[in-house]
Design brief:
The protein contains four helices and three strands; from the N terminus they run H-H-E-E-H-H-E. The protein has 295 residues and is mostly helical. The protein is rod-shaped and about 240 Å long. About 2% of the residues have low confidence.
Amino acid sequence: MWALTLRAFLYSLAMHVVVIALLIVNFDYVRQPVIKPGPKENIIEAVTVDDKAVEKELQRLKNLEKEKQQALENKLKAIEKKASETEKKRKAEEQRLAEAKRKTAADKKKREQARIAEEKRAALERERIKTEKQKAEADLKRIEEEKRKAEAERKRIEQEKRKAEAERKRIEQEKRKAEAERERIEQEKREREEAQRLQDQKTLQIIGAEIYRKVTSNFNKTGLPKGLKCKLSVQAIPGGEVINVTLSASSGNEIFDRRAIVAVEKASPLPLPADPVTLDRLKLRKFILTFEPKD
């Protein structure tokens, strides 16, 4: 487009130059001196001379115009040549600029790609840092939560330990109380047993005396020597009924021994407790009776 505009301008300039040149030539031609008519006798000679001069002048003007035309054409050719060279330079410059532009565009594209790649890398790095930061924060929160849980667990364990220690002390105290109570109960039991033993001893003495008296009252000592003694195994039930009597240790006198057994059987029921527990406690279900009648 630029080349066409330059070419049109050059042609227009050339045409204007030609027109101006023609105007100048015509102007010079018009300004030629008019030959005044002379005397009649010389008119033919003068006209002949003037026609030759005019033709010569016209030829000169034609030559001059031709030279100017040639100079103008040469100048136009020079202008066209210069325009062509200028066009070539312009095209070369445009090519250079286009190449530079392409190179610049390529560099710009590379820089843009590099910028985009760098932005992506930076975005990925920021995302990675953000993720790591979030992970670190999550780990920190988790560690803090674990620390709080551990602290709560430690406090709970400490509280459980205090409770356990308090419970242990309470148990120890209860144990000491129980031991003291047991000792008290044992003491009371011993005291009761001792009292019961003493009471049972008295009861046995009383029962033994009554049994001995009742058996003796049923013993036939007629014709028997004095000073005899035997031991009888007596088996009875609550209430004193005798269910069995055997000789445990003989007196050496068969009659004495047999009469002693008969006396026990006749003395039934013996003065024994009717309560089975008492009978068992006094060990009177089966007992040894030492029988040695006195005068």
